[in-house]
């Protein structure tokens, strides 16, 4: 059954109500036509529950806008949804990525994440380039996808909206990686399902790192919004040397700040019986929240990003394939994934809107049943980066 406007409907009942499901739910392709966005292909999804989100085909099929019954979920930065043709990956000493950084979700990878790094590349057997210079968070997020399909699929009385595409990151004498992405939402639901496969199509043993920069903005983020996670340990904080200087802990968010310097935390998360990690930002005043659910064997690490500067106001939930220590440490610790020809890694993630107080309470109970997060706003970082093992 599909649920539309408070009623459970069979396929025949839903089709009797209109000449097209599109009056209530659907996915359609359009092209943006002005400013920095001009020329970007975009898919608009409407689930029929009040959930609407957009997928930028020409930016790695990342999720840009997201809202529920007119209430915004995703973050919009001053950079806007910049056309990839305007992007300078190596610009500003590797920080050019910031000029294309906006939206609910940005893909980081496919062979590098986190801060700028230079790594040896003997695997590519090319003398003139003995090292690779990596800019912030890698190349993937501004590569256009090849759109392989989209639409609606009925199975009995259930209907799924979906889109699929392939993002290719390749070069001569270097990596040849593909990101195969499928995005789904069931008609009548408040949950986006993201299924990714990163495949090595080349014949070099190729490094692979992966992260989602999931950015929640106003009004979910406002003064008093709460971060919820099954935190077993606070491993690291970027600002540990001046832990309380800005007066912002990990749990409760303030109003927009002036002169705020970003804060990043790495939390060691516990899992439920199925190996899943749910993390949420909730706004009790509005009765609105957003939850991200990942698999620990796919994303063993989780960061919390606080950019609470006025005009830039965002909270990031960042599941990652590696510790925040970065590319060099991943190599030194033997934790860098290397893919041989045809090998792949899967990532299965759910984004769930929590549309009311009841949904928030259920999510909080689910998370709390896995592990009780620290009650202190400034728990002392342990510095214990557990070895990463057991990847799927």
Automatic annotation (TrEMBL):
Q: Name one GO molecular function term.
A: carbohydrate binding
Concerning InterPro entries, the annotation shows: DUF4432, GH-type_carb-bd
A Pfam family it matches = DUF4432
Species in which this protein is naturally found = Pseudooceanicola lipolyticus
Q: What is this protein called?
A: DUF4432 domain-containing protein
